[in-house]
Write a structure and sequence with these properties.
Layout: H1 13-27, E1 30-33, E2 38-41, E3 44-46, H2 51-93, H3 99-112, E4 119-120, E5 133-137, H4 142-148, H5 160-174, E6 178-184, E7 194-199, H6 203-213, H7 224-227
Antiparallel strand pairs: 1-2, 2-3, 4-5, 5-7, 6-7
């Protein structure tokens, strides 16, 4: 099978391909009702908004009030709550029961709703325990693009909503407390927006290990064994 809206190693292709077909159908059911101030996709209410407002203006407002670290935590927790709620909704909508198919729906939905493209990297080995590892890139992240498209360069990772959303979706998929962190950001001049997701108890040590490995390797060259 050929994937079109997500990239994944061979062992995940079948699961993602099945989700591509189903979610494409969902997003083809668009009902615009401007006379009611509403729009629905697949029978669920959605809304459009320009990405830059959320990626920069909202972040700047939060930073003015709570400082940079406080703003990042709010953005991350906002993304995580959205990912968990929307993930659970889609799992029920499509009758998904297996953790890997629940996970696979996430990046496909992510692409269709304009958050980012997702490239699942070879080191990924999702499991319902503390050995859970997911490494991935978000090409065209809406948060990083807000900087890049305006000729700005960030001095910190920008994709906190992206990170939180994916952690929320995958936590609801595997029923495991997962956290995600961006270790390289295109808005900072990096080659890609690269993330690692793992069990909450292991996040600090595995982020440090991943960053150390990326000093001499590309993200796609890192192995699961090196991160465990």
């Amino acid at each position: 099978m050929t994937l079109t809206v997500v990239s994944a190693p061979p062992q995940f292709v079948d699961a993602f391909a099945a989700m591509e077909s189903r979610i494409k159908g969902f997003f083809s059911e668009v009902n615009m009702m401007p006379e009611k101030g509403k729009m629905e996709i697949g029978g669920l209410r959605f809304r459009y908004s320009q990405s830059e407002g959320l990626a920069t203006a909202f972040r700047d407002t939060l930073t003015d009030i709570y400082g940079e670290k406080g703003a990042e935590q709010i953005l991350y927790k906002l993304g995580k709550s959205l990912g968990a709620v929307e993930g659970t909704t889609f799992h029920k909508r499509f009758g998904l029961t297996e953790p890997i198919e629940k996970l696979a729906a996430g990046p496909v939905y992510f692409a269709y709703s304009g958050w980012a493209f997702v490239e699942i990297l070879p080191a990924s080995a999702p499991s319902p325990d503390e050995d859970y590892i997911l490494t991935y890139n978000h090409p065209n992240s809406f948060e990083a693009d807000a900087y890049i498209n305006n000729g700005k360069k960030a001095d910190h990772p920008t994709c906190w909503i992206n990170a939180g959303y994916s952690a929320g979706w995958c936590s609801s998929s595997f029923d495991v407390p997962l956290e995600a962190r961006e270790v390289s950001c295109a808005a900072m001049g990096g080659a890609s927006c690269t993330f690692i997701m793992t069990h909450r108890n292991k996040i600090i040590e595995r982020v440090d290990r991943f960053r150390e490995l990326l000093k001499t390797k590309r993200p796609e060259e890192v192995t699961t064994e090196e991160l465990l």
